[in-house]
Amino acid sequence: MRLGEGTARGLSPDGQWVLGVAFDGSAFVLPTGAGEPRPVPAGALHFHSAAWLPDSRHVVCSAHEAGRRIRLYRVDTLSGEAQAFSPEGIDAFELRVLPGGREASTLGADLEHWVFPMDGGEPRQLAALERNDRVTHWLPGGDAVLVYRVNELPARIEKVELASGARTPWREIQPPDPTGIYRIGRLRMSRDGTAHAYSYYMHLVDLHVISGLA
User: Fold this and answer.
1) Are 50 and 40 in contact (CB under 8 A)?
2) Is 148 in the same domain as 108?
3) Chain Cα centroid distance, residue 33
4) How far is CA 132 from the centre of its chain?
5) Helix H or strand E segment including 172
6) How far is Cα 212 from Cα 115, in angstroms, rounded to an integer?
7) Secondary structure string (H, E, C) spanning 60-109
8) 40 with 113, same domain?
9) 142-154 residue pLDDT tens
10) Residue 82 and residue 13 share a domain
11) Which CATH number fits the domain that encloses residue 79?
12) What angle do CA 147, 11, 139 make, to 5 degrees?
């Protein structure tokens, strides 16, 4: 069932709303059942990526204001009230909400992995993760994550224990027909970790024989 225009950024935990971002960077929510779409009245914020919080009303987003770099905001989808809680320069799309919904992780301007508390507390670096790791899922308790690495085929998902740095193979991702595919793109998992979706990059070349040029 078609819901509307734009790019979907997530289904609310109660299953009633889809958060979308329009091509001009504005955000909106679409009902999955009866109801009307409504904009997120967040003023001059230009949205990039976003994730729902457990109350199905607030979201965390990567966004920027005119003349500023991208940072993390906590946004009320009804009132549009937005509070920034990270420095500028963070990655636009590597945003994950930790279990409990009070912290978010992303790549900082230094390309290291950081966790930022939404209440404005001190951030902490995830030293167990490498720069080319991408967090696809936080495990319950927040003491381990599932990661994959960019530019790999197949994509090898590993469980990383954040305290010790220990890595355990978890799953490999590869399309059934790998012809022309040279890397896995973005990988996303369901909240319970039982389902996943991913994009990939493909390059196909046709070979031609040309005669009669001499």
Assistant:
1) no
2) no
3) 25
4) 15
5) strand 167-173
6) 64
7) EEEEECCCCCCEEEEEECCCCCEEECCCCCCCCCCCEECCCCCEEEEECC
8) yes
9) 999 999 987 788 8
10) yes
11) 2.120.10.30
12) 30
Amino acid symbol at 120: G
d(CA 158, CA 137): 10
Length of the chain: 214
Among 118, 60, 110, 103, smallest CA distance to 89 is for 110
Structure tokens at 140: 């319950």
Other CB atoms within a 10 A radius of the CB of residue 139 amount to 15
Contact 16, 31 (CB under 8 A): yes
Q: Which three-class secondary structure state does DSSP give residue 199?
A: strand
Same domain, yes or no: 65 and 132: no
CA 152 to chain centre: 18
For 91-146, write each residue's pLDDT tens digit: 988 999 999 899 999 999 999 999 999 998 899 999 999 999 999 999 999 999 99
Full domain range(s) for residue 70: 1-125
Q: 44 pLDDT band (50/70/90 cuts)?
A: confident
Q: How far apart are CA 17 and CA 19, in angstroms?
A: 6
Asked, for residue 13, whether it belongs to a domain, the answer is yes
